[in-house]
Amino acid sequence: MTQKKLEEKTQQEGRSVRESILTAAVQLFAEYGYHAAPLRDIARIAGIQAASIYYHYANKEALLIEIMETHMRHLNANLERILREQHDPLIRLYQAIANHIRLHTSYKNEFFIIDTEIRALEGDNRRYILSLRDHYESLLQDLLRDGMERGVFRVSDAKVSSYAIIAMCTEVSTWFRPSGRLTVQEVIDMYSQMITQGLLTLPATAQTPQESAHT
Length: 215
Hints:
single chain
């Protein structure tokens, strides 16, 4: 085996171990909470020695940070792309709702950890994760304000409306089951309609977000 192939094999094995550690951490943090999940149990589920974790992560908080950062950045990047590529406020709203619901149902445990364990962070780590959350809220508020300025959305407070939308869409992950009666796409369409008609109060002649998205 050449030196290059040996290095590639070592890197691949390192990524595999790191992924196993993260998967185990997500499982235990979601089930028992961050403080009640010792590193030795994470290592046991990952199939490694407890001391091996420190080769990949400085401490347990570093694990928590990676879980939160990875998925908040994914959520933010998708919404940034939507705002960059779409210009119709209704299509933007529909795709923003779809992004939130799809990620929260696909990565249910990861976003549950984000929502419940920020309090476990301290100092700069806490401020950093909060900044990612604040950025997401700011992007959604920009979307709503743009629609308000263009006469499409009739809301009195973009900030409060953004919190309501986030709460509604996040709540889906508490009850949605892939094997259930509704598909995730059907849920997205239903929630989009409810948000449009209930929270945003569009003019009677306006299309719903899903109608605009499929036009």
